[in-house]
Structure prediction request, 72 residues.
Amino acid sequence: IWGADLDGIPVNEWRPKRPSMLVIGSEAHGLSEDVRGLLTGRVSIPPSGSVQAAESLNAAVAGGILMHAWSP
Prediction:
């Protein structure tokens, strides 16, 4: 069980084994402590160094980026 988290490994280094599950928390509060306790790993989307980074991504955008990175 992978969770999207600011303290996770960068998405470009992420190599989840299959089968796996990706959990994305709420935009306001992120993952709950209960869910964090179930995770086997965390993945993050680091800001681009060449462009001024957005303060945050909404859950749908973050999910799309992570699922694209996960696709074969």
